[in-house]
Structure formats: structure tokens, C-alpha cells
């Protein structure tokens, strides 16, 4: 995991660090790939094309007032699952500004909607939050045993129609599904899935152990990264948690993420099959 100790003390030094890691073969202009590029903190200038462009905009930070050191510190702390208060200290941002940027970073992650899971799958549902305060949400999840990939989504209830709608989006018909003996799971064979049920009331948890572990990890993740649970932020939290499970390589250092966002800026989607 990359550390704040690796950062330069000034913004220009952090920009040089970004360029050295994102462009290991040398910085080139995005139009004709000229290498005659003049580096400034606020913009880059191609002396051959006679055009300037913003590297911040290419990474998704266009028109922001964040310095390059704040950008790298924000990404590093977020990748390390630091609490919001610790990120405030490291970046010097106000709490509302910090929360706004964290939501933007989550939206830039892959959401896993491009490809449905197949093969042997485990499914389950979990309640997050407290119903007493009107702050509870139901999350449905599916885990692919072979790869460990997961898909998570908020559903309105645990009725059979809601479960089948979730599986229509995230599980291929014909897959073998392991689930608990809830009434909403009993009819899944009728819609084209293989089905193995385990009765949790009788202590039979084995077939769904891995998806149960996902809920434990999700609870710890929410407690560690949020001051308090608010269900209006839950879709973004689920997207981040899912990306951390499915693409752990994105959270090893800030430059891997910056390369992915630069790739997306070029009009291509690196997560087309994720």
C-alpha cells in the first residue's frame, strides 16, 4: 500500500511524481503523441501542436481547486480505508467537500453491471441500518464460487419478484445456486436455475458460508469508513466495496487508479467484462 510518506511536500513535486508513474515512457500530448511537452502545475503545453490541456481534467479532477498533493493524499487515504476524520487531517479539506469527493471517487469505480455471473453461485440477503430510525436498507448479493466475484444491489423487499429481478441482472440462467431456505428462494428452479437449499434454522450454513462472510466484511467496511450509516449513500458504498473485492489491484497505489481513469478519458472502458 502506498503511503503519504512517499509524497513530495509541494504540489509541483507531486505532479512530477504523477507524470513519472503514469507516463513511464515519457509524457506525450493526447493529440499527436508529441513528446515536446512543457509541464506547468495548472496545465501542460505541447510546443509542436501549440495547444495546452489539463492533466487534472483527464483524471476527472477538472475545474477543482485541489492541489496535486491534496489529490494524491485523498486517493491514498481512501484506498487505505481511512476514516473521514483522518482524511480531513491529511488533506485539509472540509467535511462536506471531502464527502463530495469521496462520492465522486466511488462513482468512477467499476460497478460490475457489464457481465452476469455464472457457474456455481451463492446468494443471500442482508439488512443494513436500523429500521427504528427509518434508516434501514435491504441488500441482495451473489457470489461466484470459481472466481470469488460478487454483485451487490439494494432491493425494495425480500419478495420472490425482487429476488428474481436481482438474479435476472446479475446471474446467468442455468447457474447452480446455493441459498438458504427462505420462501423467496424456493421457486428459483421454476425460472431456470439449479437450486441447493440449506436450512439455517437447523444449523446448516456450509453451502452459503462465503456469501455470509461477505456480509461480515461489508459491516466492518461500513463501520471503518463511515462516521455513521446513511442509506442514501449506500449505492456508492456498495459500489466501492464490490470494486475492492473484484478489483483489489486498483487499490494498491494511486497511480494504478489514475491510469485507469486516463484510459477511460480516451473513450475506452477497461471494465467492459468486469
Protein architecture, described:
With 274 residues, this protein is of the alpha/beta class. It has two domains: 4-109 and 249-265, no CATH class; 120-243, Nucleotidyltransferase, domain 5 (2-Layer Sandwich), CATH 3.30.420. 37% of the residues lie in helices and 17% in strands. The protein contains nine helices and eight strands. It has helices at 11-22, 55-58, 68-79, 84-91, 95-107, 160-170, 209-225, 234-246, 254-265, and strands at 37-39, 44-46, 51-53, 120-130, 135-144, 150-155, 176-180, 194-198. The radius of gyration is 22 Å and the shape is elongated.
Uncertain stretches of 5 or more adjacent residues: 267-274
Strand content: 15-25%
Number of strands: 8
- Rg of Cα set: 22 Å
* Total domains: 2
Measure the end-to-end span.
Answer: 23 Å
Sketch the major β-sheet.
5 strands, mixed
Please give the share of residues in helix.
Answer: 25-40%
CATH superfamily placement of the largest domain: Ribonuclease H-like superfamily/Ribonuclease H
Anisotropy-based shape: elongated
H/E element string?
A: HEEEHHHHEEEHEEHHH
| Tally of alpha and pi helices | 9
Amino acid at each position: 500500500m502506498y503511503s503519504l510518506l512517499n509524497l513530495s511536500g509541494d504540489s509541483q513535486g507531486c505532479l512530477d511524481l504523477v507524470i513519472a508513474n503514469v507516463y513511464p515512457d515519457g509524457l506525450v500530448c493526447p493529440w499527436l503523441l508529441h513528446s515536446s511537452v512543457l509541464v506547468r502545475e495548472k496545465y501542460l503545453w505541447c510546443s509542436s501542436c501549440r495547444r495546452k490541456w489539463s492533466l487534472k481534467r483527464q483524471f476527472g479532477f477538472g475545474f477543482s481547486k485541489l492541489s496535486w498533493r491534496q489529490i494524491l493524499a485523498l486517493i491514498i487515504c481512501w484506498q487505505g480505508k481511512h476514516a473521514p476524520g483522518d482524511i480531513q487531517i491529511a488533506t485539509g479539506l472540509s467535511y462536506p467537500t471531502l464527502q463530495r469527493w469521496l462520492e465522486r471517487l466511488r462513482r468512477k469505480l467499476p460497478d460490475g453491471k457489464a457481465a452476469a455471473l455464472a457457474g456455481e453461485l451463492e446468494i443471500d440477503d442482508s439488512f443494513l441500518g436500523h429500521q427504528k430510525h427509518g434508516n434501514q436498507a435491504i441488500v441482495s448479493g451473489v457470489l461466484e464460487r470459481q472466481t470469488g466475484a460478487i454483485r451487490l444491489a439494494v432491493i425494495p423487499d425480500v419478495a420472490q419478484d425482487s429476488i428474481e429481478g436481482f438474479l435476472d441482472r446479475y446471474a446467468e440462467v442455468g447457474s447452480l445456486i446455493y441459498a438458504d431456505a427462505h420462501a423467496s428462494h424456493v421457486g428459483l428452479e421454476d425460472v431456470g436455475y439449479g437450486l441447493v437449499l440449506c436450512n439455517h434454522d437447523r444449523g446448516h450454513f456450509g453451502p452459503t458460508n462465503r456469501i455470509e462472510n461477505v456480509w461480515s466484511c461489508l459491516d466492518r467496511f461500513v463501520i471503518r469508513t463511515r462516521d455513521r450509516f446513511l442509506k442514501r449513500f449506500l449505492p456508492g458504498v456498495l459500489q466501492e466495496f464490490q470494486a475492492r473485492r473484484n478489483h483489489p489491484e486498483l487499490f494498491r497505489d494511486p497511480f494504478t487508479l489514475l491510469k485507469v481513469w486516463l484510459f477511460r478519458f480516451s473513450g475506452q472502458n477497461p471494465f467492459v467484462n468486469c
